[in-house]
Amino acid sequence: MRKPKKTWKKNTRIIRDVGLCKYCNKMIVSDEPFVIFATKEPAHYLCMKKDDENRQLEIESKKEN
């Protein structure tokens, strides 16, 4: 017995709001790269990366002084 053909397509990309970014306070959508911290606060990946780089520069400047 043959299987009937599927006449509908399932939506493969579901886009949802994740929340406000920890750093820039803009809305994060699930199709953008983001991270969620252990405190359940979401952040854009690029915002987190910029903040981490700034912290590393501060640490290096303190070591030099």
Describe what is shown at a glance:
The protein contains one helix and four strands; from the N terminus they run ββββα. It is 31% helix and 20% strand.
Describe the structure using short key phrases.
single chain, 65 residues, alpha+beta, two-stranded antiparallel ribbon, 1 helix, elongated
What is the rounded distance between the termini?
80 Å
Q: What number is the mean pLDDT?
A: 90
Helix fraction bin = 25-40%
Strand content: 15-25%
Contiguous helical run count: 1
Q: Regions with pLDDT < 50 over 5+ consecutive residues?
A: none
For the biggest sheet, the summary is: 2 strands, antiparallel
Sketch the topology as an H/E string, one letter per element.
EEEEH
Structural class: alpha+beta
Q: Please state how the strands of the largest beta sheet are arranged side by side.
A: 1-2
Shape: elongated
What's the total number of strands? Answer: 4
Radius of gyration equals 21 Å
Compute the number of structural domains: 1
Topology at a glance:
Layout: E1 17-20, E2 27-29, E3 34-36, E4 42-44, H1 45-64
Antiparallel strand pairs: 1-2, 3-4
What does this molecule look like?
Helix content is 31%, strand content 20%. The strands form two sheets. A two-stranded antiparallel ribbon has the order 1-2. A two-stranded antiparallel ribbon has the order 3-4. The N and C termini lie far apart (80 Å). The model has no long low-confidence stretch (mean pLDDT 90). With 65 residues, the protein is of the alpha+beta class. The chain contains one helix and four strands; from the N terminus they run E-E-E-E-H. The chain has one domain.
